[in-house]
């Protein structure tokens, strides 16, 4: 087993009197994928938001490559190599596709590096190439999902956290998105933490899986070793 890139240790997050995460621990190994699943309100998005500094944990630790992320701003966390794609595919609809990608590099000064990254990303996302001058809002749902992934990669993250990449996409388009993520991982050694509300879709990735319910990990393991019945019972809480 390779070293953990990300280590979440005994994390508790509260919103007022609501406890969204209760002592959650999990690891994402370097260059690997962790699928996080669970029903509505389980705390999945809260974990994503904690990782990038949008919400402050009440207790516990978040370690990235052995160093604590406590107290860091979202900008500092991004600079350390963690990017998050929130639920809902937020493209800048009236900007062109190419400008959506360039916006993500506004803080970078290495023009040659930016151009090289754009070329590299267009090789991974060839469907964007003929649409570079189109308004991003005119793209299909699947194309927008590819665009937000490509945009996040312009910051050269080491860990990409994606909240519900398949939301509202046809199964075939979802398969394409996942195939692209696998390709990126194989080529770039990217670590991935992917939230999927559908436990079946999460298990289909045949990666390590953590099932959250009411803020706690109630099932975990390699997806290949969890049978469909066990998964369903853990998800609906009749275990
Ligand atoms: P979903 O798939 O519905 O987004 P989730 O698993 O991502 O669910 P969270 O959004 O993390 O779950 O929510 C976990 C709990 O925290 C829920 O009880 C939710 O109502 C509550 N919650 C989330 N955000 C807030 C907030 N800003 N203020 C108060 N309570 C919140």
Helical segment tally?
A: 8
- Residue ranges: pLDDT <50 for 5 or more in a row? none
Small molecules (ligands, ions, cofactors) in the structure = adenosine-5'-triphosphate
Order of H and E elements = EEEHEEHEHHHEHEHEEH
The helix content is 25-40%
Strand content: 25-35%
Overall pLDDT level: 91
> What gross morphology would you assign?
globular
- As a whole number of angstroms, the C-alpha radius of gyration is 18 Å
Main beta sheet: 6 strands, mixed
* Major sheet strand order: 6-7-8-3-9-10
Structural class: alpha/beta
Protein described:
- It is built from eight helices and ten strands.
- It is α/β, with parallel strands linked by helices.
- The strands form two sheets. The chain has a six-stranded mixed β-sheet with strand order 6-7-8-3-9-10, sandwiched between helices. It has a four-stranded antiparallel β-sheet with strand order 2-1-4-5, with helices on one face.
- A hairpin with a 2-residue loop joins strand 1 (4-15) and strand 2 (18-29).
- The longest helix has 18 residues, at 171-188.
- The radius of gyration is 18 Å and the shape is globular.
- It binds adenosine-5'-triphosphate (ATP).
